[in-house]
Amino acid sequence: MKPIVYITRKLPEEAIKGLENSYEVRMWQEEEKPVPREVLMEEAKKASALWTMLSDQIDRELIEAATDLKIIANLAVGYNNIDLDAARERGIAVTNTPEVLTETTADLAFGLLLATARRLIEAEKTVRSGEWQSWTPMGMTGQDVYGATLGIIGMGRIGEGVCRRAGGFDMKVMYHNRTRRSLEDVEYAELDELLSKSDFVMILTPLTEETKGMIGKRELDLMKDTACLINVARGGIVDEDALYDALKERKIWAAGLDVFEQEPLPLDNKLLELDNLTMLPHIGSAGIRTRHQMMGLNAEAIAACLAGQSIKNRVC
Ligand code: DGY
């Protein structure tokens, strides 16, 4: 019997070609809907490898039930959806897909900054709805990006990619990070200083116990009333109730979110009432070439693990 590889979402055929000769590849057949918990539990019990999405909760209960499991390959750079302690205790390898998504995610982050600052989505709606009556001196005006100050919270590879883009806009960049980095033309700042001096605050840090809720009322109050907050990391880092109040009361000027505490965002969520919030459905790495490269890394990690070879991109 071939070892079972279970994939939690329908993928393009070519993504799994390399695995099919040696393994029994089973796949949840829906592209839009995540695999239900009970199906995932049953499949995990039989699988040697799990190929997971960031929307799958791979918790202790599931990991302990998966007695043959050797690897969890997560199709994302973030892996906060996986209980690493539980995986470590069972000797299960966990991998992610870094580097190949760096530039595309930096593109999206900078694109969301531009869209938020210059109200691109709101402006497009006026063209479609017929609200566009004439050119007006102050109509659809936003915040200037060129020459502004950008504060990056979490300076890893994606942060460096955003800095390269910010250079083209002659922005002054400061960053806050757990560890100081030696980077050219980018200044380290304590969090409060970064928040109070930046015109754009961009969150790029992973979601951990330490960063959960790190941007709340106190931090939003420190920001300029002309500032924009951009989050392309994970929803739980920003307290959404506090953000709602700050945007509603115009304590900050606008925000751009690609990530939310609950994804997909429920249609009754009060954030949807706000006109100074630009929202995207977690598409940071959604470039066609990038997604194929991410899938390639996942297939490689699973094949290497099941063949007893050394595994790249292990996070535990
Ligand atoms: C990831 O891969 O963790 C990012 O959220 C992609 O958008």
UniProtKB/TrEMBL annotation:
Keywords recorded for this protein, A-Z: Oxidoreductase
Gene Ontology molecular-function annotations: oxidoreductase activity
Domain D-isomer specific 2-hydroxyacid dehydrogenase catalytic: 5-315
Cross-referenced Pfam families: 2-Hacid_dh, 2-Hacid_dh_C
InterPro entries the record matches: D-isomer_2-hydroxyacid_DH, D-isomer_2_OHA_DH_cat_dom, D-isomer_DH_CS, D-isomer_DH_CS1, D-isomer_DH_NAD-bd, NAD(P)-bd_dom_sf
EC number: 1.1.1.-
Domain D-isomer specific 2-hydroxyacid dehydrogenase NAD-binding, chain residue ranges per copy: 110-284
Family affiliation: Belongs to the D-isomer specific 2-hydroxyacid dehydrogenase family.
Name this polypeptide is given: 2-hydroxyacid dehydrogenase
Native organism taxonomy: Bacteria, Bacillati, Bacillota, Bacilli, Bacillales
